[in-house]
Amino acid sequence: MEIRNGPIPFFSLLFHSLKVANQAFGSVLALVLLLGLIIAMCAGIIMGASFFFGPQITLVLYIPILIFGTLLYFVFLTASTQILAAKIEQRGFSAWEGLSGSFIPAIYFCISSVLLTAAWYAVLFAAQLANSSAVVAICTIALFFAMLPFLFTLHAIALRDEGPFTALRYSWELAAKYYVRIICYMAGLFVLALFLGLAAVCIIKATAPQIMLLLMSQVNPLFLLQPSATTITAVIVVCLIYLYITLTVQAFFTGLFLSLDYACRSGVNRESQPAEQADASQPASATNTLAEGVTLKQASIRTDSDADPDTARHLDQVYRAQEHLAQTLEQEEDRMPTILFDEDMAKQLAENEEQMRKQQEQSAQRKENDEPQTIKISDKPL
């Protein structure tokens, strides 16, 4: 998912959310099993305490058990968000890393959720004082749109290491900047989920009516006492489908947060870029034009060449590239005779000259032997 290129279109984000949910399903399932193991250990401790100290101990531990169960739920949300974000950003992140590093962020998210829930119920309580259902309905709708900018509080805590109070401000600033886009995305997601839900209900009712009966009715004690294999299989399948759908929705909002966050950060960097360029252009002393219109500004950098000659030579090669290239070519031309006429080649040439000299001597000697002998005539006058 190209989250660094700005906001992602709706259907592209939805498609990648399905893909990310598929990739992270195994890790999240392992996370669920780890949390289930913790819950089973706590249940065993409570059962052991009730066996030794009586059933009254369960009533004493009711509130701590409720708080700990809520904390585990927030741990699951935080860890699954981190796993999904790791899959979106294509980096490694295991279920154990998510579980071990999610308790403190989960506590922060609990505090933020308590603040938002308290504000929600305070406004609804004030609306109910009017004794009008219309006022309550209008206040509920207004609260929904007013609380919508706090949608990314969990992501700010889990992915940006914000505190419980700064995460609320972080989410508000980000969502308020893209408020209309977020509303459109949520409306599209709601319509698509409604359509797919109705289609799934029709398909299940036509193919497996017993599963539909199980979904329409609550689990009763008879099911717990005498469960059948078909019912257990149906419950497991339904739970897995529900987990996948939950991961898809969570991956959708996680990808939306990351894309908007990167877009906001890049916008801030672009706004501060002209001032930085102006500051960087002040010490510029010359401009060297390279191939195809690429320019390199030569900066006046002062360095102590005596203290660090290697650094000075390297900077001289970088900022005086053309002069260094010409000097290098000139040195290579000077080294050409040495490269071409090395010792082996000189030895070979000497041997060739010696052979040619011997051949010339042999040829001259053969020519002398082939000439006829002349008869010397006396030079005395007759």
Give a topology summary.
Blueprint lengths: L9 H44 L2 H5 L1 H27 L6 H6 L2 H26 L4 H15 L5 H8 L3 H14 L1 H29 L1 H8 L4 H5 L3 H53 L2 E6 L5 E5 L9 H11 L1 H14 L1 H5 L2 H28 L12
Antiparallel strand pairs: 1-2
Helix pairs in contact: 1-3, 1-12, 3-5, 3-7, 3-12, 5-6, 5-7, 5-8, 7-8, 9-10
Describe this structure in words.
The protein has 382 residues and is mainly α. 78% of the residues lie in helices and 3% in strands. A two-stranded antiparallel ribbon has the order 1-2. Strand 1 and strand 2 form a beta hairpin.
Mean pLDDT across the residues is 76
Number of helices: 16
Q: Specify Rg, calculated over alpha carbons.
A: 42 Å
Percentage of residues in DSSP E strands: under 5%
> Could you give a short account of the major beta sheet?
2 strands, antiparallel
Helix content: over 70%
The first-to-last residue Cα distance is 124 Å
Care to give the gist of this entry?
The protein is mainly α and 382 residues long.
Which terms summarize this structure?
single chain; 382 residues; mainly alpha; two-stranded antiparallel sheet; 2 strands; 78% helix
